[in-house]
Amino acid sequence: MKVTIHDVARGGSGVARLESGEIVFVPYTAPGDEATIKITEKNKNYSQGELVELLTPSPSRTEPLCPAFQKCGGCAWQHLPYSQQFEIKKNGVLHALKRAGIDASNIAIDELPAASPYFYRNRIQLRGNPKEQTLGFYERNSTRIIAIEDCKIARKELNNALPQIREEGSKKDSEYKVELEVLPNGEIRAAWNMKHAAFGFRQVNDEQNLELQKWVQNQVETGEHLLDLFGGAGNLSLGLISKFKKIDCVDIGSPKERPSDLPPHFQFHRSATASWLEKAPTSRAKFTQVILDPPREGLGSDFLKIESNLNKKFNPERIVLVGCDPDSFARDAFRFTQKGYHLVKLGVLDLFPQTPHVESLAVLKRTTLR
Ligand SMILES: C[S@@+](CC[C@H](N)C(=O)[O-])C[C@H]1O[C@@H](n2cnc3c(N)ncnc32)[C@H](O)[C@@H]1O
Hints:
Layout: E1 2-8, E2 14-17, E3 23-26, E4 34-42, E5 46-56, H1 82-100, E6 109-112, E7 123-129, E8 134-138, E9 145-147, H2 156-169, E10 176-182, E11 188-192, H3 206-219, E12 225-229, E13 246-251, E14 266-270, H4 273-279, E15 288-292, H5 303-314, E16 318-323, H6 326-337, E17 341-349, E18 359-366
Parallel strand pairs: 3-5, 6-17, 12-13, 12-15, 13-14, 15-16
Antiparallel strand pairs: 1-2, 1-4, 2-3, 4-5, 7-8, 7-10, 8-9, 10-11, 16-18, 17-18
The structure holds S-adenosylmethionine.
S-adenosylmethionine binds at residues 201, 203, 230-232, 235-236, 251-253, 272-273, 293-295, 324.
C-alpha cells in the first residue's frame, strides 16, 4: 500500500498512519517519504511494515555512507541527517520520562551529540564463514552474514585489521564469531568465539565516553565517600580519585587484577550491587555521592533493595543516574521520585550515532533528608 511517513519512532522505524487510523512502523524510512510498503506483522495496536519502493524521498534524507546499509543489521539511521537523529533521541528520552510519570518540561537538559557520527566504535562483533570466505555482520532479523569490507561506524584501525582477520578465520572449521577491539594504545585485540565483551565492559565510543565522564564528574558534588555502582572498571569514578577520601566501585565484572598505581582509598568490589549494599556496614562518612549506571534492564526488581540500603546506610543527598535504555531509566528515575527524590537535571548523550541507542542522564536530589 501507498503511505506517507510522518514521524520516526524512538525504536528507529519511520511511522505511517493508515486511513483506518492504524499505525505502521517501517524501518529505513524518513518523515516526509512517500513510499509503497507491505505489512509484515499485525499486532493489536500497530503493524510492522517493510519498505517496498520509495516513491518520493523526503527532502530531509541524507546519503548513507555504507553500501550495506538496509541489509546489515547494524545501523538503522544512515539515511537521516545526524542533527535529526539526535533530536529523535532527545525527544525519545523525554517521551519515556513522560510515560513513566515524570514531567520534565521545566528541567534543564544538557545535550551532548557526538562530534564524530561515523568511524567511532572501538569494538565490533563480526561473524565469519570460512567456506564462503565471508566476514561481516548478521543481516537484520536473520543469521545470514552480510560481507563487509569496511564498517562505517567502526574505527579505522579495526577496518585495517579486517583482511588479516578474514585470513585467520578462513582456517577455522566452521562459522565463527570474532570480537575485535582497538585498545587505547592502538593495539588490536581479537576474541574468537567468546562471549560478548569477554575482556570486560568498556564503552564503545572513546570520544563520547570522555564527554560522559566529564558530565558525570561535573554533577558529582564534593563529599567524603563516592559509590560508583555498576561501575565496571571505574570508568566514571577514576577521574574523581583526588576529590574523595574513599571510593567504592562495585560491579559483577570488576577487574580481576587491581591496577598497581591505584591509591588504596579506591576499592573495586566484584559483586552484584544489591548484595554488596545489603552487606555494607552503615557509613559514617559525610555527604556520600552516588553514581548508578546499571545495564539495559535498569535496577529492575533490585530497586527496593538498592534504594533502601543506600538510604539507610549512606544517606545520599544526590544520585547521578545513567541509563542506556530510556524506558528502564525513566522507570528507575520515577521510582526514585516516589522515594523523596526529585529530578534537578537531565542529559542526553549519544554514544551510538546511526543507531537509535541513547544514553539518558539524570541528577536526582533528595527533598526530604532523614
Ligand atoms: C552500562 S555498564 C556501565 C559500566 C561503567 N559504569 C562504565 O561506564 O564503563 C553496566 C555494568 O553493570 C554491570 N552489572 C550488570 N549487572 C550487575 C549487577 N547485578 N550488579 C553489579 N554490576 C552489574 C556490568 O558488568 C557492567 O559493567
